[in-house]
Amino acid sequence: MKSRLGRFITPFIATLALRAIVIVATVCTVLTWATIHSVRAEERVIKITVLGDSLIENKGVPVAHRFPDKLEFALKARGQSVAVTNAGWAGDTAAKGLARLDRVITDQPDAVIVVLGANDMVWGIDPNATRAALAEILRKLEARRIAVLLCGVRTQSKFGEEYKNAFAAMFSGLASEHNVLFYPAFDDAFVDDAQLKALDGLHPTPAGIEAVVTRILPQVEALIASARR
To answer: What is the dihedral of CA 176, 181, 185, 186, to 10 degrees?
Structure first.
């Protein structure tokens, strides 16, 4: 009796063991596949283009110390896989930025940081015209499924309070309407500190650029997270 039972149990146990091995191997394979694909997704280099004016171009500042370069360096130091492109052009208004947008995004970046509007205020351009140009920029980027961080700039009262208030409401309003990330004032980090701004009082020194990078970094990391989705 024991002999017959043994002959039955031994193959049965062997079959169970084999099935267990197959199940464990399958689970391990699935977990390994998921881990590899997760790591690959995280390691994908996110291409960020910074579309702006002289606040971004930083003409006269050594290349490695310009805003896009310092931003890329800071992001990589935090473990982000990124490549940041400088698409700043001195003197650009929102309309001029719109005019060259298609050329700027020919390499299909994953994300764009928009820093335009300061020159519009300096030259007294109608806020409605600036708003329309920025809105079209946002629409074009949205159509291409490009993540956006819209940056405002410190509003000026050179043309009166009504003019200043129109610009103040414009940036936040556009960000809300187009559901994009928003950074209220790009120049806030340096404009009130003589040690951080150039003699013209409008542009950052290399130290001022560092200050901007430090402040804006959390929003840019949120932008990267959005681009990875």
So the answer is: -150
Whole-angstrom distance, CA of residue 194 vs CA of residue 56: 19
Q: What is the pLDDT of residue 25?
A: 45
Q: What is the mean pLDDT of residues 177-182?
A: 98
The whole-model pTM stands at 0.81
Q: Residue 28, exposed/middle/buried by CB under 10 A (0-12, 13-18, 19+)?
A: exposed
Q: Are 136 and 216 in contact (CB under 8 A)?
A: no
Amino acid of residue 41: A
Query: Above 60 in pLDDT, residue 38?
Result: no
Q: What whole-number percentage of the chain has pLDDT above 90?
A: 71
